[in-house]
């Protein structure tokens, strides 16, 4: 949760950051998904997760204290690369859960990921209202260090499913999966379009709420993440629903829900704040349902390649 937040701390403070720096972590995160997340198929995931979280904590120190633009860019790049920890946890959860509860397990991990995204917006908005934006990253250091300790104490281990395959072998297999598995290709296309709309909503929300007719402060903009949290708390119910449905039925239902709420935002988002609040809740619920159902379907293609399959889906999300 706190690791993936590294990408989203900046969103409520985009105006402040634009004065000091100009950066975007999206492509850095995609690099981590491509080159690091698939390692979960050939090495034990517990030590990999612990190492990546430790590196993330260390690099965040540099971001918080540097005043050099180039150093900030370099550190941001590597933070984005190691922020793929949740995408290593998802296949691990799928391996640990029984088949009939796999969607529920995946939904819990995904809800943690979304909660990290939303909490990052809320916390950074609150902090930036009263102190420097750098304090946002000081808090990030503390939260990640806390999570590192909890992972060390609580994270279960799981044996490696594949032996005899090389690192470049898993990269080649990912390329093969990407063009030979129809289910995977369809899931990637759906995720690509859906996440583009989801990200567009949350990023531009900062400027919608900060401009006419609302003119809200950074503090209030950050608090809008609380609305989305109510959608995240629906994760257990969403997981149970997907467990009892054909994944593609759940995907179609979720996609229709997203269309409805995107329509509300388009028609009334700039007219009345009630519309924005409703959309913040609805778009998180149905985007989560869509991601859980698609991930559940894709991870069933090959149990020995779950880290690679999940990485492919998430790379499509970042395109």
TrEMBL record:
Pfam families per record: MFS_1
Domain Major facilitator superfamily (MFS) profile, first and last residues per copy: 1-319
An example molecular function term from Gene Ontology annotations: transmembrane transporter activity
Alphabetical list of PROSITE patterns matching this protein: MFS
Major site of localization recorded for this protein: membrane
Topological type in the membrane: Multi-pass membrane protein
GO cellular component entries: membrane
Cell compartment(s), UniProt: Membrane
Membrane-crossing segments per the record: 48-65, 71-93, 105-123, 135-155, 183-210, 216-238, 245-264, 270-286
Keywords: Membrane, Transmembrane, Transmembrane helix
Protein known as: Major facilitator superfamily (MFS) profile domain-containing protein
Species of origin: Hermanssonia centrifuga
